[in-house]
Amino acid sequence: LYRARFMEEQTQGLRNPGEMENGTEPCGEECASEAQETTVTEGAAKIAFPSANEVFYNPVQEFNRDLTCAVITEFARVQLAAKGIQIKVPGEKDVQKVVVDLSEQEEENAELKEGANLAPGDQPRTAAVGEICEEGLRVLEGLAASGLRSIRFAREVPGLQSVVANDASARAVDLIRRNVQLNGVAHLVHPRQADARMLMYQHQKASERFDVIDLDPYGSPAPFLDAAVQAVSEGGLLCVTCTDMAVLAGNSGETCYSKYGAMALKSRACHEMALRIVLHSLDLRANCYQRFVVPLLSVSADFYVRVFVRVFTGQAK
């Protein structure tokens, strides 16, 4: 009873000053929450999101987003080079440029490059940042939240055809639309409100698949992996983040087995084991559809693991 009276006195004492500061009546709290916004600049993107944290923003994963932009840029370089298109990366010098081969098919790429050089075309076609490339990559961010990652793709990665920024929350999609207009990338980024799994299941046809799928859920990506390995194109790039490190590092072996099909053990190599468990889980789901994964880059950083794999079709392999 005393506690209830004390809390009532506190709320009554704080209510009037807040109303007088905002110059509003009881509805002023909602107006204040809507008016208060925070603007964050990360990379080449500028994002506005509510200070009440209605849509999640995690500054710790800036390295994750930086790394993803770099990997997709190199993936676009490899994919578009086979079509005779060169990408223009801002700040990249033409002299002493190092090209990273992600395909593990050096002979085929060498033949394609020679054929491209011998082509009778006048000048090679180029793809710049912020421009629509008709033969470029189709990217899906299944869990976009504020749309920061998709907008960074549009403003930092060349050779894109379209970026679908999807989220199941209506408020998140509204925020994505505002941020897309704020950054002037409406021609590349297309907001979408849908369940990520259903959206990927609707793009199983070879002509409708995405070249790049990025999954960064709050926790385990296990519910989305089955749909993702079907919706990524042949040789496409699948980027997956797992933030449930406690499960992957051996604190709950049964939960790990139910989500990823492997038993995690506590050891000094728990982080490497977590990466291998995620890769194993991806390969298991891909094998159900006569597909397999080729790991490109696997990273354990901070409180999460991040893997980049390419997905191919071939029952024998």
Automatic annotation (TrEMBL):
It catalyses: guanosine(26) in tRNA + 2 S-adenosyl-L-methionine = N(2)-dimethylguanosine(26) in tRNA + 2 S-adenosyl-L-homocysteine + 2 H(+). Gene3D superfamilies: Vaccinia Virus protein VP39. CDD domains: AdoMet_MTases. Keywords: Acetylation, Methyltransferase, RNA-binding, S-adenosyl-L-methionine, Transferase, tRNA processing, tRNA-binding. The keyword Protein biosynthesis does not apply. PROSITE patterns: SAM_MT_TRM1 (PS51626). Its EC number is 2.1.1.216. It is an enzyme of class 2 (transferase). InterPro entries: SAM-dependent_MTases_sf (IPR029063), Trm1 (IPR002905). One of its GO terms (biological process) is tRNA N2-guanine methylation. The keyword Membrane does not apply. Signal peptide: none annotated. GO terms for cellular component: nucleus. One of its GO terms (molecular function) is tRNA binding. SUPFAM superfamilies: S-adenosyl-L-methionine-dependent methyltransferases. Belongs to the class I-like SAM-binding methyltransferase superfamily. Trm1 family. This is tRNA (guanine(26)-N(2))-dimethyltransferase.
